[in-house]
Design a protein that fits this description.
Chains A, B: Homodimer. 2 copies of one chain form a homodimer. By secondary structure, chain A is of the alpha+beta class. Helices cover 29% and strands 29% of the residues of chain A. Chains A and B meet through α1, α11 and β16 of A and α1, α11 and β16 of B.
Chain lengths: 361, 361
Amino acid sequence: MKSMPNVFGPGSRLGIVGGGQLARMIALSAAELAISSHIFTPEPHCPAGDVAAQVTQAEYDDEVALAAFADSVDIITYEFENVPAKTAALLASRRPLHPNSDALETTQDRLLEKEFIAGLNLPVASFHAIDTIEDLSHGVQILGSPCILKTRRFGYDGKGQIKIEANDGLNRAFDEMSGAPAILEAYIPFTREISVVAARNAVGEFCAFDICENVHRDHILQFTYVPANIQNKTAEIAISAARKIADALQYVGVIAVEMFVTSDGSGERIIINEIAPRVHNSAHWTIDGANTSQFQQHVRAICGLPLGSVARRGTIEMENIVGDATQRWLDFLGEPNTHLHLYGKRETRPGRKMGHVTRVR
Amino acid sequence: MKSMPNVFGPGSRLGIVGGGQLARMIALSAAELAISSHIFTPEPHCPAGDVAAQVTQAEYDDEVALAAFADSVDIITYEFENVPAKTAALLASRRPLHPNSDALETTQDRLLEKEFIAGLNLPVASFHAIDTIEDLSHGVQILGSPCILKTRRFGYDGKGQIKIEANDGLNRAFDEMSGAPAILEAYIPFTREISVVAARNAVGEFCAFDICENVHRDHILQFTYVPANIQNKTAEIAISAARKIADALQYVGVIAVEMFVTSDGSGERIIINEIAPRVHNSAHWTIDGANTSQFQQHVRAICGLPLGSVARRGTIEMENIVGDATQRWLDFLGEPNTHLHLYGKRETRPGRKMGHVTRVR
């Protein structure tokens, strides 16, 4: 039997690695519980800095700054899965770091991630490791086309991905990877994309929000609808897959598992696409649409507090505000059942997530 | 016809005078709209400081610090009505200050406040200005006993009040005022206490939250229930009185009007007790229980933005966490429909407001 974890209650200090919108919304939620936040980020003007008690601006390899940051807080989390392993190890040597380094290592590398998921006997797209042009040629023969070539590391929002439509253009595709280790994945002709966002705490309690149905545009999440338009049975299978993953990682915090739903004569199937060891864009609706937001749930989980109710308040539509769409802020403010959240980014760029709105009906 | 006011949108900088929990919750709401906050407070570790982009710690008569504070922001508000007139004037000379100085002056002085309300032909308790012991003796004769002697200025949570039960003990009561200008008010045998919390913007739009029914303990708000258990007709009269007050003050921002409800054979009547030119404890439930919180509504009003929907999400009970009750935080976190808000105060003192919970059913 597990012993109860340390409890970090009101007055505790939370260190957050990364200073973007996810860190900002974690800090805002921690504040509700009188937990103050200290942000560690290389960015000069980060969105989270405006709502945090303290900010350290330093590089992820600045060991002196990392140590001082760790020593100034009681517990540490992060907002993105690309925290360098050495950074994570240094922090974890000084303070509890959640989610743990297993979760980071597994999700930082698409090949390890796919192998991990497959190893749990959960469905993933067929995949093939690609280090050489011969690997690629061989992989395409095995997986067939179309298929998708991705860098193993540092991909997000479709960056580092190229779709291979036929058995030509392989050299060009390979060159685009610039020699980075890659993975080739079978193309999944999905009918929907969904995500399971859930929390697991140190004593193994697991609690999932209602499943999100996600619509991407140019590889960037554009809309999330809840509940997802899938069969109850599919939802159960999806949640149980996410739980299996979280349990296997001894995961503590909020986790997101992105999945494809395919559909044929025999019914719906899920195929797991990606694991995000953090709060997730597709659950931003929980701030306004659930009894407990994913951000507070994350804080509760990592601080050893009881998980909150995930009851939903209505039918949900979340819309990301990307790039110039931020100019529509005044329209959004005028919509009666719409909750506007802007991230305080000083510069608008195409494809940059500037905020989101949640419509609850 | 009125011209449209200046609009302060995302990226604007909001100055907040005072660093307590009201400032903290205003700052948290402003952040949702990417409006960053700068707190001005004499306190060394203020609750609002942990969630604000900037804090100036200085006295309210430090004109250099006040000027620098004003120059660093686009618009200024405050969290309490006892901002010194000179401080307010200096700030208002440099940046838009909402609510305006009329609202401050009127509500800082119980005598001016009562005269103002009576001047609008709205019901107030009978009152009598008290400067001398002869005034007091005369006042008690006119108003009868029991009646209540209050300092004209700087009273809150029952401080500076003494109940006079009969025509003796007048010297002692007078001495307790320590020579401060005072006001004697008739005692109102009320059946309920309610508050109307509403927003008015610069073009005169007015929007009230559902009326709050308030229960005090030791003069400190303990519970708020919404909807108030009063007749619809009474609610209409109460809201229309609040609107008349806000209009007369050319008020911009959130205003709270505290009222007594009396009841006799001829039905319910309201009697106005006090005006608070700010966000108000009795509407803290709006964070979790209304489509727009009073804090965001205040930011919208002062920034020239459209007012938000005040639709309520259920039946509400708000409980203040006062003094040692803050030790119950873990119990509150475990209640399923309960939203916990702690203010990050470092020291717990009897009678100190440490946080609140909102139960939505």
